[in-house]
Amino acid sequence: MITTTEKTPAETFGEYVFGDRAMKKYLTERTYLSLRKTIDEGEPIDPEICGEVAEAMKNWAISLGATHYTHWFQPLTGTTAGKHEAFLDFCGKDGAIMRLSGKSLVVGEPDASSFPTDGARATCAARGYTAWDPTSPAFVKEGTLFIPAVFVSYTGETLDKKAPLLKSITALNTQTKRILKLFGTTCKKVFTSVGPEQEYFLVDKEAYDKREDLRLTGRTLFGALSVKGQELEDHYFGVLRPRVAEFMKDLDETLWKYGILAKSKHNEVAPAQHELAPVFCDTNRSVDNNQLMMEIMKKVAEKHGMACLLHEKPFEGINGSGKHNNWSLSLDNGENLLDPGAHPESNARFMFILACVISAVDTYQGVLRACVASAGNDHRLGADEAPPAIVSVYLGDELGAIVDSIVLGKNYVPKKAAKGSIGVPESPIFPIDSTDRNRTSPFAFTGNKFEFRMLGSAASVADPNIVLNTIVADAFALAADKLEHSANPEKDIKAYTENLLKEHYRVIFNYNGYGPEWEQEAEHRGLLNAKTTADAVPELLKEENIDVFVRRGVYTKSEAVARANIQLDTYVKNIRIEARVVLDMFRKDVYPAACAYEEKLCSSLSAKKSLVALNCAKEEDLIKTLAQKQEAMLLACESLENALAALPEERLAAAKACAHVVCPAMNELRRVSDEAETLCSREDWKLPRYVDLLYGV
Ligand code: ADP
Ligand code: MG
Question: Which of these, 430, 354, 357, lies nearest to 398 by C-alpha position?
């Protein structure tokens, strides 16, 4: 018998996290129960216990080698931040102790002036506060205790993504409970759960380091397509290459220790592309986990001599990467409110909730579109590799037919539960789901959850969940206002459901979301089709769209406006950086490479000609073609420089110019440069090529 002393992943799961196990071990029972009440039931934290919790967290962290702590927050940059403070403090005359006071656990005070605030904070008014979020567990990483925290300004504006997320969760909790009451159900707390599937690329680190575009922007801004792309469809779910398999194993084991339950891993459609899906958990933790996961993915990749690319479109000509936000709503006993049961047609509560979600998605399609808008994601949405830029809801055959029966009066015949078999007696019979999967839909019902598929791979999952929670809470609130005092609730709820479905039927689309037909049809239905960030973000500034956040207590008006403005500013900054990198690489790498090869061709030709009178017509053609490309490159370079120099000051005008002038100018310079690459020799084209990047590990 083989025996091993190594612990199993189940034993080491969450060992870097101050979770239930550590809480039980390090806290007195009274404090443990009080903290659990806050986490599980949303009770306000008892200030009396903070000192003990801080002491316990510190001792636990020290046992894992920590010397520092930080409030870990999520500013509007979309990433995470924190200032690391040593536990160490003077004690006595020349001694020192390790200390974490209750006050230090609860509140921190970083400088708020250097984070994006859209003027909410002037540099001279720098004070900001971070405040402990006890509902997401602290963890130890690289010698520091990370304490999840919200980030607000001295005057109380939220400056981060966690505070509004928590407010949206609270809003949804409050409104869902009102809805449940209509159906005679009570519960202490309603949870939203999220499972984000994460796509990414792995490339060789040495090749990556040689590409300024990858290092500075996360994507290739030059590069002729590899002669083999994804056309053989042989990468999807294919055998993992050894380096990739080792990386994935290491990544899984690391994530598990951080309490992130990485579940599935596989190769994705494009060469060098992969996916990781964790098991879903409550939204707040899921958002934190996804941030931590993205950071760990990059670090583990480096350990294995690779770079992990989280950008939405690292490579032209093959698929980019997204994130699927699987979202559901459940009671504290675990009952999922989006579970339709065996007979959705007679499940009044499910049909009612479904109708509310559909109405929210239709009413706030602009907000949903805008919350996933970024320079990177603009390359994917609508490019036949990700959902289109048009927001619609996919219900599948069964629910689709039920809704059709309500809206169009069609007859609905429930399907019998189907069983599948491959027709070989030895192989088992298996149950078949009532709905197929539609991979082209931006917002699909997938059995017992909605899958919002428009997210970019690099983005924080906070924004889409802030939006989803808020707009669904609002739909619930409107319904509850109307129905709470009904004399005949059963009849009125049914009528309300039917009306909502009729009113918002246009947003349901159960067919192929790729292709021009849907674009036309969607336009006919009056659905929004904002193709770029510059077109989408202004949706957030519409009065009715600001109002929904204000009504549900998620943003004040100025917070909502600030966020839209920061999103536009970030977009402009990113495009500007990309354009500058394009120009820099063009002058330092691309053009010199073309010249070097051209020079070799010319000197070889003239040498030949000086020796013997040869017919070198084809060689001359090659020189001519390359020379023409060089001229076209210089022209395109000049256009890009001009476009960049002419960028307007005003942010929306600048964003539109980025989308409609700077990006096309970058694309044109790239196009001719890539054509030149295909003509030049390997020796002269020193930049790692697509083939090196996509097939390098
Ligand atoms: P697919 O590729 O078909 O979309 P995956 O299995 O890769 O499916 O991913 C599904 C994701 O949805 C996982 O992260 C899973 O944990 C999550 N998920 C499953 N059920 C729920 C639910 N009720 N609420 C939220 N997320 C869920
Ligand atoms: Mg999915």
Answer: 354
First to last CA, the chain: 37
The two three-digit tokens of residue 269, written as one number: 């459609």
- 465: three-class secondary structure by DSSP: helix
Return the SS3 of 140. strand
Pairwise CA distance, residues 101 & 341, whole Å: 50
Q: Is 436 helix (H, G, I), strand (E, B) or coil?
A: coil
What integer pLDDT is reported at residue 114 of this predicted model? 76
Q: What is the mean pLDDT of residues 231-243?
A: 84
- Tell me which amino acid residue 612 is: V
Contact between 672 and 629 (Cβ < 8 Å): yes
At residue 434, the pLDDT reads: 62
Rounded-to-integer distance, Cα 562 and Cα 541, Å: 10
List, for residues 22-54, the tens digit of each pLDDT value: 999 999 999 999 999 999 988 899 999 999 999
Q: What's the full length of the chain, in residues?
A: 697
pLDDT, position 622:
96
The residue type found at 36 is R
pLDDT given for residue 417 in this prediction: 67
Extract long-range pairs of 430-436: CB within 8 Å, 24+ residues apart.
Answer: 434/396, 434/397, 434/398, 435/395, 435/396, 435/397, 435/398, 435/399, 436/396, 436/397
The ligand 1 site (C-beta within 6 Å) comprises: 193-195, 197, 264, 277-280, 324, 326-328, 336, 448-449, 451
CA 528 – CA 367 distance, rounded (Å): 10
State how beta strands 450-456 and 443-445 pair. antiparallel
Residues with CB under 5 A from ligand 2 (ion): 197, 324
CB 590, CB 558: distance < 8 Å: no
Residue 8, CB-side half-sphere exposure with 13 Å CA sphere: 3
CA distance 477 to 481: 6
Indicate which residue's Cα is closest to atom 5 of ligand 1: 277
Nearest Cα neighbor of 277 from 124, 513, 64, 449 is: 449
Sign of CA dihedral 277, 280, 282, 285: negative
Q: Which 8-state DSSP code applies to residue 259?
A: T
* Ligand 1 atom with least separation from CA of 194: 25
- pLDDT exceeds cutoff 80 at 207: yes
How much is the pLDDT for 384? 72
Evaluate whether 480 touches 179 at the Cβ level (below 8 Å). Answer: yes
pTM of the entire predicted model:
0.95
Question: Atom 3 of ligand 1 has which residue's CA nearest to it?
Answer: 437
pLDDT at residue 123, rounded to an integer: 58
- The mean of the pLDDT values for the chain is 94
Please provide residue 160's backbone torsions phi and psi, each rounded to the nearest 5 degrees. -140, -170
Asked if 134 and 79 touch (Cβ cutoff 8 Å), the reply is no
User: What stretches of 6-138 adopt beta strand conformation (E)?
Assistant: 68-72, 85-86, 88-91, 95-98, 107-108, 128-132
Q: How far is CA 575 from the centre of its chain?
A: 19
What distances in angstroms separate CA 447 from CA 324, 341, 398, one per listed residue? Answer: 15, 10, 10
Of the ligands numbered here, which is closest to the C-alpha atom of 453?
2
| Per-residue model confidence (pLDDT) at position 236 | 82
> Rounded CA gap, 478 and 210, in Å?
56
Distance CA 450, CA 469 (A): 12
Closest CA to 146 of 71, 66, 58, 50: 71
> What residue has token string 């950086």?
577
Q: Encode pLDDT of 74-123 as tens digits.
A: 999 889 999 999 999 999 888 999 999 999 999 998 776 778 877 766 65
**Which ligand 1 atom minimizes the distance to the CA of 327?**
25
The closest ligand to the CA of 323 turns out to be 2
Amino acid at 439: R
**Can you read off the two tokens belonging to residue 623?**
């020189």
Going from the Cα of 37 to the center of ligand 1, the distance in angstroms, rounded, reads: 28
Residue nearest to atom 13 of ligand 1 (CA): 195
**How far apart are alpha carbons 47 and 446 in whole angstroms?**
42
